[in-house]
TrEMBL record:
The keyword Iron applies. Its EC number is 1.14.14.18. Heme b binds at R14, H21, Y129, R178. It comes from Streptomyces hundungensis. It is an enzyme of class 1 (oxidoreductase). It comes from the Bacteria. The lineage of its organism: Bacteria, Bacillati, Actinomycetota, Actinomycetes, Kitasatosporales. GO terms for biological process: heme catabolic process; heme oxidation; response to oxidative stress. InterPro entries: Haem_Oase, Haem_Oase-like, Haem_Oase-like_multi-hlx. CDD domains: HemeO (cd19165). Keywords: Heme, Iron, Metal-binding, Oxidoreductase. One of its GO terms (molecular function) is heme binding. This is Heme oxygenase.
Length: 220
């Protein structure tokens, strides 16, 4: 009998992170935010945290464009820092950079992304996947809620982070992204390490939600 083929990497990475996805999704802060129970200040503070994370992801991306493992994932149509800057200017005013402060969990998250970008391209892919594929999926639910709760213009300032102008067909994009994952040229041991890093990426996100929840303790 021939042993069955291992599952495609995209399936492996997805199933391995399912439980943590549920945890992140059902965090108190996310629940309150999506439930419309928090003010726009909480949304602005969350958006600010995203800016620090995406700055690390996208500054790190520059050096990885030609990397054989991470390079194919670096796509200009995914870049979010420009959209986040516009959202924050809308939410906080033009001087938003002077007052933006990362939470300790956000600094830890951004530092880990930077560390991977500098020294472990496959680990960087784990972070890239966790954020961008999530934004293209559940991010759309968050956008819809934010528009309704705080009255942003549909797909306009305040929610531009969630609007991928240059990706008209997110489902097709996600399919091609998964193909890229399946084709990543690393061995089984390295694949397992990437899956673990993905778990770490989810945990880092959950830690940010936890600290945001402490700052906006509505459900307490
Ligand atoms: C309230 C918050 C969230 C909601 C409502 C949500 C919802 C979803 C939905 C509906 C999908 C699509 C699943 C599919 O394609 O079948 C998805 C996928 C995904 N989400 Fe979330 N999500 C949330 C938070 C997060 C967070 C915090 C992360 C991590 C930072 C994340 C990462 C991902 C990833 C990586 C995928 C792609 C899975 C794959 O197809 O490989 N999500 N999410």
């Amino acid at each position: 009998m021939t042993p069955s083929a291992p599952p495609p990497f995209s399936t492996l990475i997805r199933t391995a992170s399912q439980q943590q996805h549920t945890e992140a999704e059902s965090s108190t802060f996310m629940g309150d935010l999506l439930g419309g129970r928090l003010g726009v200040e909480a949304y602005a503070r969350y958006t600010e945290q995203l800016w620090f994370v995406y700055r690390a992801l996208e500054e790190g991306a520059r050096a990885l464009v030609d990397d054989p493992v991470a390079g194919p994932f670096i796509r200009p149509e995914l870049m979010r820092t420009g959209a986040l800057a516009r959202d924050l200017a809308h939410l906080r005013g033009e001087g938003w950079r002077d007052t933006a402060v990362p939470l300790p969990a956000t600094s830890a998250y951004a530092d880990r992304v930077t560390q991977c970008a500098r020294s472990w391209p496959a680990g960087y892919v784990a972070h890239h996947y966790t954020r961008y594929l999530g934004d293209l999926s559940g991010g759309q639910i968050i956008r819809d809620r934010a528009e309704r709760t705080w009255g942003f213009t549909r797909r306009g300032d305040g929610v531009r982070f969630y609007v991928f102008e240059e990706i008209p067909n997110p489902a097709a994009f996600k399919r091609s992204y998964r193909e890229l994952l399946d084709g990543v040229r690393v061995d089984e041991v390295e694949r397992r390490r990437v899956v673990e890093e993905c778990g770490r990426a989810f945990a880092l996100n959950t830690a940010v939600f936890r600290e945001l929840g402490e700052e906006f303790p509505l459900s307490a």
